[in-house]
Amino acid sequence: MTDPAITENTTLKGIAVSPGIIIGRARLVDRSKQRIIYQYLLNGKEVKKEVKRFKEALKLTKKQIIDLKNRMSDQIKEHSFILDAHQMIVDDSMVSDATINTILKEKINAEWALKRSIQGIRQLFDEIDYEYIRGRISDVENVAERILRNLAGKEQDSLSKINERVIIVAHDLSPADTSELNTAMVMGFITDVGGKTSHTAIMAQALKIPAVVGLESVTTHVQDGNLLIVDGYKGEIIIGPDDDTIMAYQEKQAYYDRYISSILRLSHLPAETVDGYRVSVKANIEFLEEVVAAKDHGAEGIGLYRTEYLYLRSKKIPSEEELFEDYRQVAEIISPDQVTIRTLDLGGDKFLSAQDLTVEINPSLGLRAIRFCLKEPKIFKSQLRAILRASAYGQIRVMFPMISGLQELLEAKNILHEVMNDLEKENIEYDHSIKVGVMIEVPSAVSVADILAKHVDFFSIGTNDLIQYALAIDRVNEHVAYMYEPYHPAVIRMIMQVVKAAKDSGIEVSLCGEMAGDPFCTALLLGIGIDELSMNSGGIPLLKKLIRSLSKKESEKDLKAILKLSTSDEVKKFISEKTETLVPEIQEKGLYMDRSLYNS
Amino acid sequence: MEQTKNLKIKNDLGLHGRAAAKIVELTKQYKSKLYFKKDGHEEVDGSSILSILTLACPRGTEIQARAIGEDSEELLDKLSLLFEKRFGERK
Question: What ipTM was estimated for this complex?
C-alpha cells in the first residue's frame, strides 16, 4: 500500500449508485485477503494494549498449532515437521519482534504492523533463486493468516463490531462482508471498483444510504478517520472538506430531504399515465425488514425477493424452518399484494463464504443460480419446500433465475413438482395453483422466449445480467463498466422480443433490473408495453410521479422513433431531451443519480 | 565467550525448511546466541528459521557460524555434527 497523501478538500469522482448526502468519518476496510483495518493508535496506553493484544494472538496461534500437531493421526505424523516449522515462524524475530517494534515505533495497529513484517519477509524470499526455499513463503503466509484471524477474533474493530457511525471505504464489498456489518452503524459506502449493479450498490439502496463506487483508488487516498463528504447524487466524494464546503453540503442535504419527503407524500397514488394506462410498480427487496419500507414508498407488492441474504448471513445453509418463517412473514406483511420469490441465485459475484465452492475464473459464466441448484438438489428442494409451505399464507409466486433454455426450466419444474408431491403425501398445505415464472437474463432465453412462455405463468426481465451477458460487459470491472449500456439498441430489441413472446402466450411480463427504476428508461419501457416495473423502493415515489405525467400513446410513438436510431448515444440523446421536458426537476436539481447521460 | 567455525553444506537440498528447523531446534537447547554469515551477506540470527532460509544456501555453500555465550563451544560442536550428518538426510 502506498502512503496515503494527506489531502484537503480533494474531490474524487466515481459512479453514483445510491442517492443521498452524508458527512462523516472514514473507516478503511482491506478485503484483499484477510480483512484488515488500518488504524493509528492515539497514545502510549493504546500502544501498550496493542502490543499485548498481538502477543496474546501469537500465544493463541502457537497453542492452535500444537493442538493441531497433537491431533495428527499416526499416518501423517511424519509431516508434523511442517507444524514445528510453523511454530518456529510464530516465534521468529522477523515476525514477532519486528511487528512489535513497528507497533511501538509507528504507533499503528497490530494487523497493519504484521502485514508490513510479512511484506518485508516476502521481499527477501522473492530474491531467493531456489524454488524449494522460495516456496516456503507459503508457510509464512499461512501462519500470518492464522495470527490475523486470531487478532480479528478478539479485536474491537472487526467489521461486525463497528460501534460508531462511519463511512465504509473498501476496495470492494462482497455479500459475505456486508452481511457481517452492523448496518445501523454504516452511513455510506465508497469503493474502488464496482458499477451501478454491483452488490455494494444494491446493498446501499436497500439500506437507503448513499454509495459511490468505481472511485478506482480511493482506498489509497483516504485514511482511517478522515472526514468525508459522500454525494450519492453526483457520484463524488470530498476528502477533508473545509468549513465552507461542509456548510454548502449541509444545505444541499436539507434541500434534498425536503424534496424527497414531498414526493413521498404522493407515493400511494397509482402509477397511471395521463391516457389511463396503469403500470404496476413493485419493490425489489433483499431482506424481510425491507417490506414495510417498500409499502411506505408505495410499492404494490414485491416484484423480486432476492433470497441470498439468509444463505450469506450465517456460515451455514439455513434450515427449511428458518426459510419458511422468513417467506411466510414477507407474504403476510405484503398481503393482499403479491411477492415473487426468486430461488437461490448464488455464484457470480456472490459467493458462499463457508461453502466449498472452487474458485472459478469466470464466475458469471460458471456454476451459479439455477445451475448450482440443479447440481445441489438438496439445497434447492429445501428452499422450494419453504416457499411452497409459505404460499399457504399469502400471495406467493416462485421464479427461477438464469434459465438459459427449456431443458433447465423443465428440470427445475420437475423438482418443484416432486416437492409438491412430497408435501401432499405429508398433508402439508400449500398454494396448489402457485404461479411459476422465469427470470429472463440470459440472451439465449430471449431467443427462445416464445418456447419458454408456453411453460410458465410469467416472465421477469432481469436487465442487469441480461445487459452484461448480451454486451459482454463485466459490470464490476471498472475498465469496461462504462460500456454497460441500457440504451443499446440491442437491449431495446431484446426486451421487445421478450414482451412480444409473453403477450402472444398471454402471460405476464415484468422488468426488475436497474432499468426499471431509471427515470430515463420509463417512457421507453412504457412504449414497449411492460406492465410491471420492480425496483428498489427508494425510487418508487419518483417513478410513480413520472408515470403519472407520461402518456402511453406518446411513448409508443417515441419508441418507433427510437427504433430508427442506431447507436446508444443517439438513443440516450433522444431519451434525455424527452425526459428533461417531462420532469425538469430530475435534471435541474440533479435529483436523480448522475447518469453517464450527462457526461457524453 | 565467542567461538567461530566454518561449515559446509553437504546435503542435496541445502538449507531448506527441515534443515533450518533442525538448526533452530538445536540453538534453543543452548544459552549461547548463534549467528550465521555467508559471503556477501549480512550476518543473520541463527535462532530465526526465516533468517536461515533467506540466507539461501544450496549444497556446497560454505558459511561461518559464530556463537557467543558460556556453552558456545558445545553448541558449535553439535552444530558441526548436524552439518556433517547432512541434517539426518540420506543424500
Answer: 0.89
